[in-house]
Amino acid sequence: MLPQKNLWxxxxxxxxxxxxxxxxxxxxxxxxxxxxxxPKGVFFGTTHTYLGQEANAVGVLHHMNQDEVVFSNHRCHGxxxxxxxxxxxxxxxxxxxxxxxxGGRGGSQHLHWRNFYSNGVQGGIVPIxxxxxxxxxxxxxxxxxVAFLGDGTLGEGVVYxxxxxxxxxxxxxxxVVENNHIAQTTPVELALAGGISARxxxxxxxxxxxxxxxxxxxxxxxxxxxxxxxxxxxxxxxxLHTWRFGPxxxxxxxxxxxxxxxxxxxxxxxxxxxxxxxxxxxxxIEAQVxxxxxxxxxxxxxxxxxxxxxx
Amino acid sequence: MPTVLDSLxxxxxxxxxxxxxxxxLGEDLLDPYGGAFKxxxxxxxxxxxxxxxTPISEAGFTGLAIGMALRGLRPVVEIMFGDFLTLAADQIxxxxxxxxxxxxGNKPETERVSLPLVxxxxxxxxxxxxxxxxxxxxxxxLGTPGLVVLAPCALGDPGQLxxxxxxxxxxxxxxxxxxxxxxxxxxxxxxxxxxEFRIHNDRTDAEPGFAAPTYLCRVRGAPPPTLTLTAYGYxxxxxxxxxxxxxxxxxVFVELVVPTGLSPCKMHPLLASxxxxxxxxxxxxxxxxxxxxxxxxxxxxxxxxxxxxxxxxLAAHDLPIPASGPLEAHVLPSVENIxxxxxxxxxxx
Lengths: 311, 349
Ligand SMILES: Cc1ncc(C[n+]2csc(CCOP(=O)(O)OP(=O)(O)O)c2C)c(N)n1
Ligand SMILES: [Mg+2]
Hints:
The complex is a heterodimer. By secondary structure, chain A is of the alpha/beta class. Helices cover 46% and strands 12% of the residues of chain A. Chain A has a single domain (5-302), classed as Rossmann fold (3-Layer(aba) Sandwich), CATH 3.40.50. Chain B has 2 domains: 4-181, Rossmann fold (3-Layer(aba) Sandwich); 195-346, Rossmann fold (3-Layer(aba) Sandwich), CATH 3.40.50.920. In chain B, the strands form 2 sheets. In chain B, strands 2-1-3-4-6-5-11 form a 7-stranded mixed sheet, sandwiched between helices. In chain B, strands 7-8-10-9-12-13 form a 6-stranded mixed sheet, with helices on both faces. In chain B, α1 runs parallel beside α5 (158-168). Chain A binds chain B through residues 69, 98-100, 102-106, 110-114, 117, 119, 121, 124-136, 138-139, 157-158, 161-162, 164-165, 168-169, 306, 310, and chain B through 23, 52, 54-55, 57, 59-73, 75, 90-91, 94-95, 98-99, 101-107, 111, 113. Residues 48, 74-75, 120-122, 150-153, 180, 182-184, 248 of chain A line the site of thiamine diphosphate.
């Protein structure tokens, strides 16, 4: 399920482009299915969809090897699916089913599968990711760890403790800041003084900044940074300026509808990347993914709830 | 006999020797200083690269240790003063304590996470350090699902308890070391002229994967006890002093029950003692309201019903700890307080 190590060597550019489109479309349809069905009462709690940010997870995580480690946050469905996670297990987790990723104990924000971990406390998992990276380093593995965090999470103090320690002890970790310009309802301008890259510069962590929704820009940038993380066993940062298309969770978007419509026009990672595929190829991928997602949803729906006896 | 400090230091040395996955993180740990209370003295010289002195970032390095534990190491964290546990509380409660349960829901054994992490910290007052360096804060962590809390005492082998915790725990574990215990001599419970000891290592309550013993102590040759006194950590030392004076000066005979496992709460040995005495006094250095003693009394009442004739708590006043010697001594429970309380409880019926 996880992508092969030598992505570039083993595949043609066309194959890679198709794979990326499939991965992004899978996330898109998963999230839309979640939002469409939430009002029916099939899911517990809340959700934070990855609509509009698909290129970030896909562009970064396509480079991960089997033994490498990913730490994610509340907005984790896209990260999880791009990591290779199973759509049925994720639907089932949101539905509180026994077949869910964590048997329904975690729900939308609290996932663990293989080397993928997420939690629902902003910033709290960042030092944990640094510790994981250092553990891999101590084991002598040349494994990279990736930690995703949002712009709003840059307000948490523990993030800076983690950056300091990562730099001080040269943790092989890539911090991926997804600046979608908003935290719940708070625009980044109301929450963040100074620049994002300056934060990493303060700790001598080299950072690359991209303002794009094109997966073909994110992919090589992330690949180069991850290679530096592995070979130099040191931290790097990738700052991705991006846009959230959906509500923060569900039905709680305070931004004007025109703003979102404009973003969907100009910054949709799927539209941008679809231009590289032939219409037939695009259609075929979409049909397959549609089928996969609908089946995953139906299967999860039919699965039994977690048993109280297993608590 | 060694001091408790020696015993803990030896345990850390053994842990580093016996398991290469063990490493220690905390502030100012490097030799020649060896930590604010010297528990790690000599270790950074003996184990280069495995004793990591950290920036002043309690949440940060506790988080690092959680990540290390998730990925197969067995880290030991030292929080310089127990008061500063609050800075790492989110890491402990919302991360470390949750992960095993939250992530392992339906997973087969091989895909589960474990989190072998020991967080050691000196707690307690009576040294004039004032309101932010003298507290007994473990009550805020007791009862957190997924977190084990242990408190060594001078009885038996405090180092062995620490060594077992480091080598065998699969859960995050808080190891609370009262500062005044450090210089206390370890009491060999197999050869005491003054006291008779029994040790309970049974697994009648939830266990952290190894035995956290409970000690039962009586004055040697005394008649059957009429009251059960329970205390942990350094408070157990003071309770033992009170126990001796009660016997010799007042002819009141009490049984002392000293748990080393605070959470999950090990009740079996205490309840067995209460079946004999029907009277309970719980003594703690933490504040009185909603604390450890309250839980002990509640559980005892639930288990014994009318067979529990009298029950009281003795604890710190519900105030911050003052720096001034006489004020601090007044706020914290003393040997005199314990004696007084025991006399009241045994004489009035
Ligand atoms: C410590 C903490 N405080 C508040 C919240 C509630 N909360 C959940 S997501 C969120 C916004 C996060 O914004 P950002 O980091 O920009 O990520 P985004 O949602 O934009 O992906 C908030 C405030 C939380 N989960 N954790
Ligand atoms: Mg944001």
